[in-house]
Amino acid sequence: MKVIQPLALTLLLLPLAAQASCGGAFCSLSTDWDIQGVASKPGVRLDIRAEFIDLDQLRSGTHKVAPAGEVGEHDEVRTINRNLLTTLDWNINADWGMTFKVPFISRAHNHIFNKDDGLGGTDPEVENWNFSGIGDVQALARYRFYNDEHANAGVRFGLKLPTGSIHERNSEEEAERTLQPGSGSVDSLLGAYYNHHDGNLGWFAQGMWQQMVSDRDNFKPGRKLSADVGISYNATPDLSLMLQLNLQHKSRDSGANAEPADSGSRTVSISPGLSYRITPAVQVYGFVQKPLYQNMNGAQLTPDWSAALGINTAF
User: I want to staple 168 with a disulfide (CB 3.0 to 4.6 A). Which of 43, 131, 221, 302 is the partner?
Assistant: First the structure.
């Protein structure tokens, strides 16, 4: 039990990170306890995670780039994401369970619109957005089809629902769709996982596919495929050290309200972290995520690092 509970903190299910042209983003870390492989008794777990993601680097392909400064176009400058992700997991029985995720988003964004100065140059105008609200809720079911003394395997499936606003605006205009709290789409989610534990060591591997099934207001988010592996080590009965590698591929967005040229990416990140058991039922944890490889279509804002802190409790 002491090995797998910290291991569950490392499982990167449902990676939500999406480096878009404007920079709406979540950490690709997960604090799900539903695929830990040991929670066979019925019960409920609550996880609350705070994230900080500062997207302040403009990148094209694998390189940092300077703003283009083209007349009539805008240049992205910075997006600060402060997210609060609440996850409620209900373990119905040894093999079946449900998970609900509710994100609360606080986002500040600014870019420069390059107006024509009438003299053959540009007249830069700074535009800002600052808003907060509920994002897109996710509802998933899971089924564990394999279990022995040291290993577990299962599948998860469900939907991302269009509960987040798509009409946040400043005093003059709506923010771009990739910056909005919600995508407006219904997405299907399908994933599989495997974890193994032996003594003080544990490791996992998982994958997840996200595909839009219904769009809204001429915006179709690109498909996302993720693969993650990680390892955990119990340094003491209460303290666990963790390390994970996160890979993600996102295809281009499409539709009249999308920016296909500046969407889609391939990323690889490393995420060291630790968790500490305060009581038998309560743990606190923290992670830092560092990109190792970022390949962006067009020009998009990316982070140099991200951080997540949280608490998990069983009822």
Answer: 131
User: In angstroms, rounded to a whole number, what is the distance separating the alpha carbons of residues 201 and 186?
Assistant: 38
Q: Is the dihedral of CA 297, 262, 158, 231 positive or negative?
A: positive
| Alpha helices by DSSP H, the chain | 4-10
Give the pair of three-digit tokens for residue 30: 């997960």
pTM over 0.85: yes
List CB contacts of 121: < 8 A, sequence separation 6 or more: none
Average pLDDT taken over every residue of the chain? 86
Backbone angles phi, psi at 139, to 5 degrees: -130, 125
Is there a contact between 152 and 37 (Cβ–Cβ < 8 Å)?
A: yes
Which stretch of 37-41, 163-167, 206-210 has the lowest confidence by average pLDDT?
A: 37-41
- Angstrom CA distances, 121 to 69, 115, 118, 127, 218, stand at 9, 8, 7, 19, 33
Domains of the chain: 4-314 (2.40.160.40)
Band the pLDDT of 40: cuts 50, 70, 90: low
Provide the residue count of the chain.
315
Q: Comparing 105-119, 238-252, 268-282, which segment has the lowest mean pLDDT?
A: 105-119
**Residues near 74 by beta carbon (within 8 Å), at least 6 away in sequence:** 111, 112, 113, 114, 127
- For residue 249, give the amino acid letter: H
Task: Give CA–CA dist 123/57, Å, rounded.
Answer: 22
